[in-house]
Amino acid sequence: MTFSMRRIRAIITKDWKDLLKNSYILVSILLPLGFAAMLSRMSTDDSSMLSMPINLALVMTGAFVQASMMAEEKERSTLRVLLLSPASTLEIMIGKSVLSAIITLIVVIGSILISGINIPELFYFSIMILLSLIIFISLGTIIGLISRTVMETSIVGLPILIIFTYGSMLSSMFNSPIIAESISYLPTENFSSALVSLQGSGGFAEIKWNLLNMLLWAIGSVILAKFIYGKRRLDK
């Protein structure tokens, strides 16, 4: 079976039409922008708050928009048709992810502009955003596949929202070395750490381990999403 851009465009077009009718997705898009506007009115030197508008945009939009679109397919019994269609796994995953990635990127840019975050080293920052998109859209795909309805994605995805976005707060709240160590491996924490390093005139040497962490998360999340997709395809 050959790779087909025509099939990918058909999936993207269908998702776009469904998106315009989904109020849950629209809320997921607006909330990060509202938080960025609120944060822009606050003056804080807390480094953990520096990247929070970006992380919230990545988690809320990247993961939840993707999860909602996947779960909506299941709710309407169209996902099975898609899974059993001639489209390959790669075509479906790309087609179902492109629109979410574009929307997430727009929301991230909007959050940066609204909150007034200074972005140094655009090259490294772009790599960090790309890896984050892969991570959270893959996680969103997983959430959507294991959720039975659109509303259920909120329940399944809530722990991800809390842990990935507010990891630093949870670490200080519980004051546990084990929890703090575990949270330090989250991709959002590494994103925040790398952003602080870049703003402090750091370069590749200072963020290389953060980038490696995010790369491993990206690879792992894609593999897991593909595995769960394969299981759902074979489910009766």
UniProtKB/TrEMBL annotation:
The keyword Transmembrane applies. It is a multi-pass membrane protein. GO terms for molecular function: ABC-type transporter activity. Keywords: Membrane, Transmembrane, Transmembrane helix. The chain crosses the membrane at residues 21-40, 52-71, 92-117, 123-146, 158-180, 211-229. It is found in: Membrane. Signal peptide: none annotated. This is ABC transporter permease. It comes from Paenibacillus sambharensis.
